[in-house]
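tool_call: predict_structure(chain=1)
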Amino acid sequence: MDWTASVDGYCERLGPEVWAEPLNAVTNLAFVIAGLWVWRRGTPGPVRVLAALLIAIGVGSGLFHTLAVRWAGVADVLPILFYVLAYIFFANRYYWRLRPVWAGAVTLGFFPYAAATVPLFGLVPGLGSSAGYAPIPLLIFGYALALWRRLPEVARGLAIGAAILCLSILFRALDMPLCSGWPRGTHFLWHLLNAVMLAWMAEVLRRHLAGAGGGR
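tool_result:
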């Protein structure tokens, strides 16, 4: 595989130039701003991990939407995956109060879960490559439902986050279908909403840890 091969998968990009996706590139600052906001909340250790990953998401996605090559695509996707895995681990550890080993083992279950559900979402008309993200809000809704009696405030927070992510995925999926009538595309809205959603999810964890007395 040629890791330096160009990638053109977004409505806004019309050529190989570095600044061919100005909106998609600039809106990655939202992740950095969100990460700094989370960090400055005086957060416990686990939430600061999420803050650092939020900043990494902004950097990785910024590289991808400027350089638009395959290796930058990996730099875009990996921090997102790490954030998802970290949050699942922290949810298992602090919402369900599992021991670290068990929290980690349950977290690894994300991989077979994704392998089973992504192909199913791939059958949804118009979802396209966004099918790879669709299992995540479903999983968050599942956690929210399961935690509804145990931790109602956390459950509400998770449900709100999942709802924002559903809207975000919708705009990601609409980027190319609406391209002819909206040349700038809608992918930049995916960035903005995701920055809000990920910061909110970190805030849900922060509030829970503050009430539980720690998490360091």
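agent: Residues 70-95 form the longest helix (26 residues). Proceeding to next step.
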